[in-house]
Amino acid sequence: MSLAARLLTLADRVREPRTVYAHCDIPCGIYDPEQARIEAESCYKIIQKYHDSDDPVFRDRCLLVKEDRAGLAKEHLYTLWSDHFKPPHVEQFPNVHDTFWQATKQCSQVKRSVELEDAQKLLDLIDEIDDMWKKTGGLESTRVAGRPGN
Amino acid sequence: MSLAARLLTLADRVREPRTVYAHCDIPCGIYDPEQARIEAESCYKIIQKYHDSDDPVFRDRCLLVKEDRAGLAKEHLYTLWSDHFKPPHVEQFPNVHDTFWQATKQCSQVKRSVELEDAQKLLDLIDEIDDMWKKTGGLESTRVAGRPGN
Amino acid sequence: MSLAARLLTLADRVREPRTVYAHCDIPCGIYDPEQARIEAESCYKIIQKYHDSDDPVFRDRCLLVKEDRAGLAKEHLYTLWSDHFKPPHVEQFPNVHDTFWQATKQCSQVKRSVELEDAQKLLDLIDEIDDMWKKTGGLESTRVAGRPGN
Amino acid sequence: MSLAARLLTLADRVREPRTVYAHCDIPCGIYDPEQARIEAESCYKIIQKYHDSDDPVFRDRCLLVKEDRAGLAKEHLYTLWSDHFKPPHVEQFPNVHDTFWQATKQCSQVKRSVELEDAQKLLDLIDEIDDMWKKTGGLESTRVAGRPGN
Amino acid sequence: MSLAARLLTLADRVREPRTVYAHCDIPCGIYDPEQARIEAESCYKIIQKYHDSDDPVFRDRCLLVKEDRAGLAKEHLYTLWSDHFKPPHVEQFPNVHDTFWQATKQCSQVKRSVELEDAQKLLDLIDEIDDMWKKTGGLESTRVAGRPGN
Amino acid sequence: MSLAARLLTLADRVREPRTVYAHCDIPCGIYDPEQARIEAESCYKIIQKYHDSDDPVFRDRCLLVKEDRAGLAKEHLYTLWSDHFKPPHVEQFPNVHDTFWQATKQCSQVKRSVELEDAQKLLDLIDEIDDMWKKTGGLESTRVAGRPGN
Question: Quick check: ipTM above 0.85?
Answer without folding.
Answer: no
